[in-house]
Amino acid sequence: MLSRLTRLQAITVCAVPVVALLATAAFAPLPFSVAQPGMTANVLGENKGDPVITISGAPTRTTSGQLRMTTIEATGPDASVSLGDVIDGWFRTDRAVMPRDSVYPSGNSVKEIEQHNADQMKQSQDTATKAALSYLHEKNDVKVTLKLADVGGPSAGLLFTLGIIDKLDGDGSGGDLTGGRNVAGTGTIDADGKVGAVGGVALKTQAARRDGATVFLVPKAECSDAKSELPKGLRLVPVTTLKGAVDALVSLEKGKGSVPSC
């Protein structure tokens, strides 16, 4: 059939399905999420009118400075992401295109995903409390309540833990763990104080600097990602353990000792 057509006619015939395929791809939903810098919250203060950290059973300190947990904001699990959205996201420094399954559990309904994220946040809060009290060798009658509205997932664990420590013990010698600075960060925490990677750090550094942070605690494994779009005026401090994070902040506060860098 094609042998009987002129060269131009043959090209036109072959191009039609290709153009149709591209047109379909441009508007068809793709298995990606597009993320951007999200909200941050000072765990030493209030969020939507409620204190983030409430402690009873032990004396607490009045703190200065801030410890800001950071988030990313991604298109919803049921959102339609087109080829145009993906291409736009690839060429912007304040956007990231991520496989949907890396952001949301695969195959779940929106309600199940929301419940999953809420469960992860609750587990993260419980673990952060255990890690902080274990680090401080506090008695079991200390009760900690953590409240952070409209945020899910485990990535605020490190900042919750540091917030509890700052409210109970500060730097251990009467000063603030933050040194009065606006410190932000991200990272999971386990009961033994090990800090884990979380993803989306290049967007979280942007959110942190936007909201005034000058120091950002990042899981060491994600240093290269954090440096990729690092905002001017934000210092990266890599951490692998809770003790390492506390030691780094105390060294920053006192101007003594070694502070790790990416």
From TrEMBL:
Pfam families: Lon_C. This is Lon proteolytic domain-containing protein. It comes from Streptomyces olivochromogenes. Keywords: Signal. GO terms for molecular function: ATP binding; ATP-dependent peptidase activity; serine-type endopeptidase activity. Residues 136-235 form the Lon proteolytic domain. SUPFAM superfamilies: Ribosomal protein S5 domain 2-like (SSF54211). One of its GO terms (biological process) is proteolysis.
